[in-house]
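Co-fold these.
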Amino acid sequence: MEKLIYFDHAATSWPKPPQVMTAMASAISEKGGNPGRSGHILSVRASQAIFECREAVCRLFSFSMPERVIFTQNTTYALNMAIKGLVKRGDHVVISNLEHNSVIRPLHKLTDPREKNITYSMFNATDAEDDETVFCFRRAIRENTRLAVVTAASNVCGKMLPIEKIAAVCRAKGIKLIVDGAQAGGVFPLDFERSGADVLCLAGHKGLYGPQGTGIMICSERVEPESFAEGGNGLNSEERDMGNVLPERLEAGTLNTPGICGLCEGIKYVIKETPEAIFGRTLHLSRYASEGLMSCKNTVLYGNYDIKAPVILFNKKGIEPNVLASYLADNGICTRSGLHCAPTAHEAVGSGLNGAVRISFGHMNTKGEIDRFLRLVDKA
Amino acid sequence: MIYSIMVMSSVTYALKAQGILAREGIGTRLEKLNKSQTLKGCGYGLRVDKSKLPEAAAIMKREKIRIIEII
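Predicted complex below.
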């Protein structure tokens, strides 16, 4: 049996650095108290470990306020919290056509008049020229646009959006900007302060190499999202509301201490390797794989940008994407087929309603693995 | 030892303050608190040597970290 080849990092990264697993085990055995609830050693250690992770997030994303780093279950929850916590009744929201269902579905629900009766529009973000993307974004803005939600990089094709330029437009027009960084955090350098975004939502278990069940929302001082879930937060228990202090206002219930401890080690790993070096390596792999796929028989690539997150979307003419992914899986290669929870993105890049096969790289992947993959695709 | 407790907005602020004070050479201990003049139920504070309290309070002011009560 040949070694398993993992090309599904955009779904979740694997393998995790060993220190992630060690930290999770240590959290259970040595930091097993409930963080922020008690004064005994196990609770204090858990609180300290969680705060250490907030500081690590700040170091990686160039942010100075650990108290505005909120832990969530995943990016979907972070996006739901940000969107539902910021949008007001009757608002208009602008999103790109590359967004994930974790953006589209919450907004769709909010269009219901019994909810917040909002409206939303999509702008085309597939053009290779940033200025054209910003032009399309600007054109989608209406008088009552109060919020924009934009991915930093598409989970379908890797297209990177010009966040700083979009943020500048938002700032000028008084629009709050939420950035979906699920495919960006740890994958390429991302400076939260400089980006101009108001909220950055991240996955702990993708480019940050943490465990599944971890996500992050970073909030600038310019926004104060309403609470999303209510319950215990260890503060002012006599009060009937969640209070106004972040992060506790947005962190109802017991936090995932083992997951956050693992995430902290994943983030430290990324800081040590540096996002610049990780991106350089995966971009190189991505270009190598794209060139190889283009020379395979009957393959079609979608959204093949020069600089992009390490995600490649392709099909082989005459073979259904799920059949191709299954054939690759049978040969020890992990990919993902289908619509990747982003149907409008597939429509935008031309892969349609049948979807395609996605391969996505982590910096531990090698050219040798890509060569084996290419041989199999060519043979299919 | 005679000590005071600086009541902080949350455990997160208490830990942030603790780190800053440690870097300035002021040792503190994280304390779980119950009801006080300002706390309506649970909360956290930092126990600090009373002789260090003015310096610690000045550092908190400089760092814009609110002490909500001193016990």
